[in-house]
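Final report, Chapter 2: Outcomes

The project's central promise was a pipeline that accepts a single protein chain and returns its three-dimensional structure in a standardized token representation, suitable for archiving and comparison. That pipeline is now operational. To close this chapter, we reproduce one record exactly as it appears in the project archive, with the input sequence first and the structure output second.
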Amino acid sequence: MRKTALIAVLLALAGLAWYFIAGAKPSDSQTASTPQSDNQQNLIVVTPWELTSIDPSKSGFIFQRLQLAETLVDAAQNADLQPMLAQSWSANDKGDVWTFVLRDGVKFHDGSSLTADDVVKSLEVALTKPTALKSALISQIKAIDSQTVEITLEKPLMSLPAYLAHATSIILATSSFDDNNEVKELIGTGPYYATKIEPPQKIEQKAFADYWGEKAKIQDVTYLANSRSETRTLLAQSKPNYLVFTLDSASLSRLQQDPNLQVKSKSLARTIQYKVNAENPLFSDVNVRQALSDAIDRQGIAQSVMRADNAVANQILPPIFKDWQIKTATQTPDPQAIKQRLLDLGFTADANGMLQKDGKPFKFTLRTFSDRPELPIIATALQAQWKKIGVDVDVSVGNFSEIPAGHQDGTLEMALYARNYGMTPDPVGSLIEDFDPKGSDWGVMNWQDSELTESLLKLETTKDNDVATKQRVSKIIYDERPIVPVVYYQQNAAAHKSLKGLEIDGLERNFYLNKLSW
């Protein structure tokens, strides 16, 4: 125990030492843009997400959450779209020509004014990258005047504004790009501007005095990426100016007992789910897929791993998307009855009670990764629960990239991961990508359904809110289970009680730093 405690202390001291050694003063040239305030204590935001590039197509989600850059369209906590840099938008009757009117008085961090030309530049560059916007099938983006942008599509798309809320569609000043359209400097419009960006782990930023909206109260913020949940926990307890996100259940319990800390949790628009290779003989039969799903003790996983009773996921889209919700059966798994269902399908049990078919054991590898600390724990729980019905599962905890790689080379059998359905506030775009008939790295593998495809395409072009079709999509996915939800993800954040205004965004778009104060 002494050795464990000593290691924990050393890790905390090492983390603190790294921060102070690596720290540097913001650029003097931008100090003048900082509003004066007595609220001068800096804030240190710690998450597991590394900064891989200053290109929005790769790290836009970090820049968006840190409020360094903004999109034309925003989303409220209930996923309703709302104005951001665009004060309004409209479409023609067909839905293939959209007009966006920009907000007046918006300035970039270099002092220049937001114009339609800046928007056109940012979106045209985004179209050349692997971004969500590419799925919108845009044929032309042009400036009608200095405050109006027109976007023409190859086919009608009623959810286009949701695509423009995606983090990869953030708007930067034209001067941010070099001659090759690569980002040379991050010049956005948010309540904070970056003074130093040091991939993969650090960003320093200051409050922007000329921000068009609610101005930041905390003047200096540092972003640190640290992949170890244990270290993030120690940092949360080390100094009063740390704000730490994404904590595992053990750390959460520990921090909740600290009288100096506030700990907040919220269900997100993110589903922890698994996908199967439907071409694999073990998963080609929908009855087998249903049996595996029915054997999961979701309530037990929600309580023991997520520490939340409302995290049970019986359908793929979280409750925040209310129009997509369907009624599903809630029942306690009966391993013996489920095992008998598999025996009735032609499986046999060996001397140890494990299932086999045609002389081959019912055995496969479940891949997951540790970037989100809950995933390996949930994978182990699934392994134990499926063993009760005679299914042998190997759990492989590897790198994040191994799942899309396994999808591409065909070696993937099953993968457990967390899918964010809120980055594009209208989930139609995410579902079209994930359930593409040709498959998707983070979606279906060797599975398709013509009715589902037609329903999603109908939702793309329907102007009114077609709740019946949305629920039909949810029902097909629920019945067929090529992708199976387990629990809804819970975001946890911890900070000193002196930090006021802490709020968790259920869509994972914003840390709301400009609302925080000491």
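Archive annotation: The first strand starts at residue 43 and ends at 47.
This record, like all others produced under the grant, will remain available to the consortium after the project formally closes.
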